[in-house]
Amino acid sequence: MEEFEPIIVAFCCHYCAYGAADLAGSMRLNYPTNIRVIRLPCSGKVTPVFILRAFEKGADGVYVAGCMEGDCHFIHGNLVSKPRVLYVKKLLQEVGLEPERVDFFNMSAAMGPRFAEVAREFTERIKQLGPSPLNKKYRKKSDQAA
Amino acid sequence: MVVGERKPFEEIMKMLEGHKKVMVLGCGGCVTVCLTGGQDAVRVLSSQIRMARDKDGNPIEIIEKTVERQCDPEYVDQVQEIVPDVDAVLSMACGAGVQFMAERYTKTPLYPALNTTFVGGSVKEGYYVERCQTCGECKLAYTGGICPIARCSKSLLNGPCGGSTKGKCEIDPNVDCGWQLILDRLRDLDQMDRYEQILEIADWRTSRDGGPRKMIREDFQR
User: Fold this and answer.
1) Percent of chain A at pLDDT above 90?
2) ipTM beyond 0.90?
3) Distance from CA of B40 to the nearest CA of A (A)
Protein backbone atom coordinates (compact mmCIF):
# COMPACT_ATOMS: atom_id res chain seq x y z
CA MET A 1 0.00 0.00 0.00
CA GLU A 2 1.31 3.43 -0.91
CA GLU A 3 2.33 5.66 1.95
CA PHE A 4 -0.34 7.94 3.36
CA GLU A 5 0.29 11.51 2.28
CA PRO A 6 -1.89 13.78 4.40
CA ILE A 7 -3.49 16.99 3.20
CA ILE A 8 -2.71 19.72 5.70
CA VAL A 9 -4.15 23.21 5.57
CA ALA A 10 -2.07 25.92 7.23
CA PHE A 11 -3.80 29.21 7.86
CA CYS A 12 -0.88 31.63 7.98
CA CYS A 13 -0.85 35.23 9.11
CA HIS A 14 0.55 37.58 6.47
CA TYR A 15 2.79 39.36 8.97
CA CYS A 16 4.55 36.34 10.43
CA ALA A 17 4.07 32.74 9.33
CA TYR A 18 3.57 33.67 5.69
CA GLY A 19 6.80 35.66 5.79
CA ALA A 20 8.46 32.76 7.59
CA ALA A 21 7.33 30.41 4.82
CA ASP A 22 8.86 32.81 2.30
CA LEU A 23 12.07 32.89 4.27
CA ALA A 24 12.14 29.11 4.51
CA GLY A 25 11.96 29.09 0.72
CA SER A 26 14.74 31.68 0.34
CA MET A 27 16.88 29.67 2.72
CA ARG A 28 16.20 26.59 0.59
CA LEU A 29 14.91 24.66 3.58
CA ASN A 30 13.00 21.50 2.88
CA TYR A 31 9.61 20.90 4.34
CA PRO A 32 6.88 18.44 3.35
CA THR A 33 4.74 19.25 0.34
CA ASN A 34 1.65 18.20 2.28
CA ILE A 35 1.16 21.73 3.56
CA ARG A 36 -1.36 23.94 1.77
CA VAL A 37 -0.77 27.49 2.92
CA ILE A 38 -3.68 29.91 3.02
CA ARG A 39 -2.61 33.48 3.66
CA LEU A 40 -4.76 35.56 6.00
CA PRO A 41 -4.38 39.20 7.03
CA CYS A 42 -4.14 38.03 10.66
CA SER A 43 -4.54 34.74 12.50
CA GLY A 44 -7.48 36.45 14.23
CA LYS A 45 -9.35 36.14 10.92
CA VAL A 46 -9.78 32.43 11.58
CA THR A 47 -13.12 31.35 12.98
CA PRO A 48 -14.16 27.78 13.85
CA VAL A 49 -16.06 27.63 10.55
CA PHE A 50 -12.83 28.03 8.52
CA ILE A 51 -11.27 25.05 10.24
CA LEU A 52 -14.38 22.86 10.20
CA ARG A 53 -14.92 23.52 6.48
CA ALA A 54 -11.35 22.40 5.79
CA PHE A 55 -11.98 19.12 7.60
CA GLU A 56 -15.33 18.72 5.91
CA LYS A 57 -13.65 18.97 2.53
CA GLY A 58 -11.22 16.23 3.46
CA ALA A 59 -8.22 17.86 5.13
CA ASP A 60 -6.37 15.47 7.46
CA GLY A 61 -4.96 18.24 9.61
CA VAL A 62 -5.27 22.00 10.01
CA TYR A 63 -3.07 24.45 11.81
CA VAL A 64 -3.15 28.16 12.34
CA ALA A 65 0.10 30.07 12.59
CA GLY A 66 0.11 33.53 14.10
CA CYS A 67 2.61 36.04 15.43
CA MET A 68 4.52 35.71 18.68
CA GLU A 69 2.39 36.77 21.65
CA GLY A 70 2.56 40.54 22.04
CA ASP A 71 3.70 41.04 18.42
CA CYS A 72 0.34 40.94 16.61
CA HIS A 73 0.11 43.60 13.89
CA PHE A 74 -3.50 44.12 14.98
CA ILE A 75 -2.65 44.13 18.69
CA HIS A 76 -4.48 41.02 19.84
CA GLY A 77 -5.52 38.98 16.77
CA ASN A 78 -3.33 36.03 17.71
CA LEU A 79 -4.60 36.09 21.29
CA VAL A 80 -8.16 35.90 19.94
CA SER A 81 -7.30 33.12 17.55
CA LYS A 82 -5.59 30.70 19.92
CA PRO A 83 -8.59 30.03 22.20
CA ARG A 84 -10.75 29.62 19.10
CA VAL A 85 -8.46 26.91 17.81
CA LEU A 86 -8.58 25.21 21.20
CA TYR A 87 -12.38 25.44 21.06
CA VAL A 88 -12.34 23.72 17.65
CA LYS A 89 -10.49 20.81 19.26
CA LYS A 90 -13.60 20.31 21.38
CA LEU A 91 -15.89 20.59 18.35
CA LEU A 92 -13.84 17.97 16.50
CA GLN A 93 -13.95 15.66 19.47
CA GLU A 94 -17.75 15.87 19.46
CA VAL A 95 -17.76 14.83 15.82
CA GLY A 96 -15.43 11.93 16.58
CA LEU A 97 -12.17 13.25 15.08
CA GLU A 98 -8.94 13.43 17.06
CA PRO A 99 -8.39 16.89 18.57
CA GLU A 100 -4.68 16.59 17.72
CA ARG A 101 -5.58 17.16 14.08
CA VAL A 102 -5.79 20.88 14.76
CA ASP A 103 -3.28 23.17 16.45
CA PHE A 104 -2.02 26.71 16.82
CA PHE A 105 1.61 27.85 16.49
CA ASN A 106 3.31 31.15 17.20
CA MET A 107 6.21 32.31 15.04
CA SER A 108 7.75 35.47 13.66
CA ALA A 109 8.54 36.35 10.05
CA ALA A 110 12.22 35.79 10.84
CA MET A 111 11.63 32.17 11.83
CA GLY A 112 11.98 30.40 8.49
CA PRO A 113 13.61 27.32 10.05
CA ARG A 114 10.83 27.17 12.64
CA PHE A 115 8.21 27.24 9.88
CA ALA A 116 9.86 24.25 8.22
CA GLU A 117 10.17 22.50 11.57
CA VAL A 118 6.48 23.02 12.40
CA ALA A 119 5.50 21.79 8.93
CA ARG A 120 7.63 18.67 9.39
CA GLU A 121 6.47 17.94 12.91
CA PHE A 122 2.81 18.50 12.15
CA THR A 123 2.95 16.34 9.01
CA GLU A 124 4.61 13.61 11.05
CA ARG A 125 1.90 13.89 13.71
CA ILE A 126 -0.89 13.57 11.14
CA LYS A 127 0.84 10.64 9.46
CA GLN A 128 0.87 8.90 12.82
CA LEU A 129 -2.86 9.57 13.27
CA GLY A 130 -3.66 8.26 9.79
CA PRO A 131 -6.12 9.64 7.26
CA SER A 132 -9.13 11.60 8.43
CA PRO A 133 -12.32 9.54 8.11
CA LEU A 134 -13.56 12.35 5.88
CA ASN A 135 -10.66 12.15 3.42
CA LYS A 136 -12.46 10.68 0.42
CA LYS A 137 -9.34 9.41 -1.32
CA TYR A 138 -8.36 7.12 1.52
CA ARG A 139 -11.89 6.34 2.58
CA LYS A 140 -12.68 4.73 -0.75
CA LYS A 141 -9.68 2.47 -0.32
CA SER A 142 -10.61 1.45 3.20
CA ASP A 143 -14.23 0.82 2.08
CA GLN A 144 -12.97 -1.45 -0.68
CA ALA A 145 -10.72 -3.29 1.74
CA ALA A 146 -13.70 -3.82 4.03
CA MET B 1 -31.57 39.00 26.25
CA VAL B 2 -32.58 35.35 26.40
CA VAL B 3 -29.47 33.28 26.85
CA GLY B 4 -29.27 29.77 25.47
CA GLU B 5 -26.63 27.11 25.56
CA ARG B 6 -26.10 24.55 22.84
CA LYS B 7 -27.33 21.08 23.67
CA PRO B 8 -24.78 18.27 23.84
CA PHE B 9 -23.84 17.17 20.33
CA GLU B 10 -24.87 13.58 20.96
CA GLU B 11 -28.37 14.65 21.92
CA ILE B 12 -28.70 16.67 18.72
CA MET B 13 -27.47 13.76 16.61
CA LYS B 14 -30.00 11.49 18.26
CA MET B 15 -32.84 13.86 17.35
CA LEU B 16 -31.76 13.81 13.70
CA GLU B 17 -31.57 10.02 13.44
CA GLY B 18 -33.37 8.79 10.36
CA HIS B 19 -33.59 12.21 8.71
CA LYS B 20 -31.85 12.70 5.37
CA LYS B 21 -32.49 16.37 4.72
CA VAL B 22 -32.90 18.96 7.44
CA MET B 23 -32.84 22.70 7.81
CA VAL B 24 -30.72 24.19 10.58
CA LEU B 25 -32.45 27.45 11.32
CA GLY B 26 -30.68 30.18 13.24
CA CYS B 27 -32.22 33.16 14.98
CA GLY B 28 -30.85 36.68 14.57
CA GLY B 29 -32.09 37.83 17.98
CA CYS B 30 -30.83 37.18 21.49
CA VAL B 31 -29.10 33.89 20.75
CA THR B 32 -26.97 35.57 18.09
CA VAL B 33 -25.73 38.00 20.73
CA CYS B 34 -24.87 35.20 23.15
CA LEU B 35 -23.06 33.40 20.30
CA THR B 36 -25.09 30.19 20.41
CA GLY B 37 -27.81 30.41 17.78
CA GLY B 38 -26.86 32.94 15.11
CA GLN B 39 -25.61 32.54 11.57
CA ASP B 40 -22.13 31.56 12.68
CA ALA B 41 -23.42 28.97 15.13
CA VAL B 42 -25.62 27.54 12.36
CA ARG B 43 -22.56 27.11 10.12
CA VAL B 44 -20.53 25.46 12.85
CA LEU B 45 -23.27 23.06 13.94
CA SER B 46 -24.22 22.18 10.35
CA SER B 47 -20.61 21.45 9.55
CA GLN B 48 -20.30 19.24 12.61
CA ILE B 49 -23.48 17.32 11.79
CA ARG B 50 -22.43 16.78 8.18
CA MET B 51 -19.04 15.53 9.28
CA ALA B 52 -20.40 13.17 11.92
CA ARG B 53 -22.93 11.69 9.51
CA ASP B 54 -20.46 11.51 6.62
CA LYS B 55 -18.00 9.73 8.85
CA ASP B 56 -20.56 7.04 9.59
CA GLY B 57 -21.39 6.63 5.91
CA ASN B 58 -24.85 8.09 6.41
CA PRO B 59 -24.69 11.51 4.75
CA ILE B 60 -27.21 14.22 5.47
CA GLU B 61 -28.21 17.25 3.42
CA ILE B 62 -28.45 20.44 5.40
CA ILE B 63 -29.99 23.75 4.44
CA GLU B 64 -28.43 26.51 6.52
CA LYS B 65 -30.69 29.48 7.12
CA THR B 66 -31.00 32.26 9.65
CA VAL B 67 -33.99 34.55 10.06
CA GLU B 68 -34.16 37.87 11.87
CA ARG B 69 -36.18 36.39 14.75
CA GLN B 70 -38.05 33.15 15.24
CA CYS B 71 -40.52 34.60 17.71
CA ASP B 72 -42.36 36.76 15.13
CA PRO B 73 -44.80 35.32 12.58
CA GLU B 74 -43.55 37.51 9.72
CA TYR B 75 -40.01 36.18 10.04
CA VAL B 76 -41.13 32.61 10.64
CA ASP B 77 -43.08 32.88 7.37
CA GLN B 78 -39.88 33.55 5.46
CA VAL B 79 -38.93 29.88 5.44
CA GLN B 80 -42.31 28.58 4.23
CA GLU B 81 -40.86 27.55 0.86
CA ILE B 82 -38.07 25.54 2.46
CA VAL B 83 -39.88 23.73 5.28
CA PRO B 84 -42.01 21.39 3.08
CA ASP B 85 -38.82 20.21 1.35
CA VAL B 86 -37.03 19.02 4.49
CA ASP B 87 -37.59 16.05 6.81
CA ALA B 88 -37.13 18.14 9.94
CA VAL B 89 -36.09 21.54 11.20
CA LEU B 90 -33.41 21.98 13.84
CA SER B 91 -34.04 25.35 15.40
CA MET B 92 -31.22 27.22 17.08
CA ALA B 93 -33.59 29.75 18.65
CA CYS B 94 -34.69 29.90 22.28
CA GLY B 95 -37.67 27.86 23.41
CA ALA B 96 -40.04 30.59 22.27
CA GLY B 97 -38.63 30.56 18.75
CA VAL B 98 -38.81 26.78 18.48
CA GLN B 99 -42.46 26.86 19.53
CA PHE B 100 -43.39 29.64 17.12
CA MET B 101 -41.88 27.54 14.34
CA ALA B 102 -43.67 24.40 15.54
CA GLU B 103 -46.99 26.22 15.69
CA ARG B 104 -46.57 27.63 12.19
CA TYR B 105 -45.33 24.43 10.52
CA THR B 106 -47.45 21.62 11.88
CA LYS B 107 -46.44 18.94 9.36
CA THR B 108 -42.68 19.03 9.99
CA PRO B 109 -40.90 17.88 13.15
CA LEU B 110 -39.19 20.74 14.97
CA TYR B 111 -36.19 20.07 17.20
CA PRO B 112 -34.41 22.43 19.57
CA ALA B 113 -30.62 22.71 19.30
CA LEU B 114 -30.34 24.86 22.43
CA ASN B 115 -31.22 24.66 26.07
CA THR B 116 -32.77 28.01 26.91
CA THR B 117 -31.12 28.94 30.17
CA PHE B 118 -31.96 32.41 31.47
CA VAL B 119 -32.68 36.09 30.89
CA GLY B 120 -29.51 38.05 31.42
CA GLY B 121 -26.76 40.06 29.86
CA SER B 122 -23.12 39.89 28.82
CA VAL B 123 -20.50 40.96 31.35
CA LYS B 124 -18.05 40.72 28.47
CA GLU B 125 -17.93 38.90 25.15
CA GLY B 126 -18.73 35.24 25.70
CA TYR B 127 -19.58 35.66 29.41
CA TYR B 128 -23.27 35.80 30.29
CA VAL B 129 -25.02 36.16 33.61
CA GLU B 130 -28.58 35.91 34.82
CA ARG B 131 -30.28 39.13 35.88
CA CYS B 132 -34.03 38.60 35.61
CA GLN B 133 -36.45 35.80 36.39
CA THR B 134 -39.45 37.46 34.71
CA CYS B 135 -41.47 37.35 37.93
CA GLY B 136 -43.87 39.91 36.48
CA GLU B 137 -43.73 42.28 39.47
CA CYS B 138 -40.56 44.37 39.31
CA LYS B 139 -39.13 45.31 42.68
CA LEU B 140 -35.95 47.00 41.52
CA ALA B 141 -37.08 50.44 42.74
CA TYR B 142 -36.90 49.25 46.35
CA THR B 143 -33.68 47.30 46.08
CA GLY B 144 -31.23 49.70 44.51
CA GLY B 145 -31.64 48.32 41.01
CA ILE B 146 -30.47 44.85 42.03
CA CYS B 147 -33.04 42.11 41.82
CA PRO B 148 -33.62 40.07 44.98
CA ILE B 149 -35.56 37.46 43.03
CA ALA B 150 -32.83 36.77 40.48
CA ARG B 151 -29.71 37.59 42.46
CA CYS B 152 -30.58 35.99 45.81
CA SER B 153 -30.41 32.21 45.53
CA LYS B 154 -33.48 31.94 47.75
CA SER B 155 -35.27 34.92 46.17
CA LEU B 156 -35.69 36.46 49.62
CA LEU B 157 -37.44 39.82 49.74
CA ASN B 158 -36.40 41.34 53.07
CA GLY B 159 -32.71 41.01 53.67
CA PRO B 160 -30.14 38.23 53.56
CA CYS B 161 -30.37 34.81 55.15
CA GLY B 162 -27.84 33.29 57.53
CA GLY B 163 -25.94 31.79 54.62
CA SER B 164 -24.45 35.13 53.61
CA THR B 165 -20.75 35.18 54.51
CA LYS B 166 -18.33 37.96 53.64
CA GLY B 167 -20.57 39.06 50.79
CA LYS B 168 -20.82 35.61 49.27
CA CYS B 169 -23.67 33.13 49.05
CA GLU B 170 -23.53 29.79 50.80
CA ILE B 171 -24.33 27.88 47.62
CA ASP B 172 -20.97 28.79 46.08
CA PRO B 173 -18.13 31.04 47.26
CA ASN B 174 -17.99 32.52 43.75
CA VAL B 175 -21.60 33.69 43.89
CA ASP B 176 -22.23 37.13 45.35
CA CYS B 177 -24.89 37.40 48.04
CA GLY B 178 -27.67 39.30 46.26
CA TRP B 179 -28.71 41.02 49.46
CA GLN B 180 -25.18 42.13 50.24
CA LEU B 181 -25.09 43.78 46.82
CA ILE B 182 -28.44 45.43 47.49
CA LEU B 183 -27.37 46.70 50.92
CA ASP B 184 -24.08 48.09 49.61
CA ARG B 185 -25.85 49.84 46.80
CA LEU B 186 -28.61 51.29 48.98
CA ARG B 187 -25.94 52.60 51.34
CA ASP B 188 -24.07 54.21 48.44
CA LEU B 189 -27.29 55.78 47.21
CA ASP B 190 -28.14 56.99 50.72
CA GLN B 191 -31.43 55.13 50.42
CA MET B 192 -31.15 52.87 53.46
CA ASP B 193 -34.68 53.89 54.42
CA ARG B 194 -35.88 51.66 51.58
CA TYR B 195 -34.28 48.69 53.29
CA GLU B 196 -36.45 49.42 56.32
CA GLN B 197 -39.62 49.14 54.27
CA ILE B 198 -40.95 45.62 54.47
CA LEU B 199 -41.71 44.14 51.07
CA GLU B 200 -44.96 42.24 51.23
CA ILE B 201 -45.29 38.60 50.33
CA ALA B 202 -44.85 38.33 46.58
CA ASP B 203 -47.86 37.51 44.46
CA TRP B 204 -46.39 34.73 42.38
CA ARG B 205 -49.45 34.60 40.17
CA THR B 206 -47.76 37.24 38.03
CA SER B 207 -44.87 34.84 37.68
CA ARG B 208 -45.11 31.31 36.30
CA ASP B 209 -47.46 30.26 39.11
CA GLY B 210 -50.34 31.91 37.29
CA GLY B 211 -49.88 29.71 34.23
CA PRO B 212 -48.79 30.82 30.73
CA ARG B 213 -48.74 34.61 30.53
CA LYS B 214 -49.90 37.09 27.92
CA MET B 215 -49.33 40.78 27.28
CA ILE B 216 -51.77 42.54 25.04
CA ARG B 217 -51.62 46.10 23.75
CA GLU B 218 -55.27 47.00 23.07
CA ASP B 219 -54.44 49.78 20.61
CA PHE B 220 -52.68 47.30 18.32
CA GLN B 221 -55.59 44.85 18.15
CA ARG B 222 -57.57 44.76 14.91
Assistant:
1) 90
2) yes
3) 8
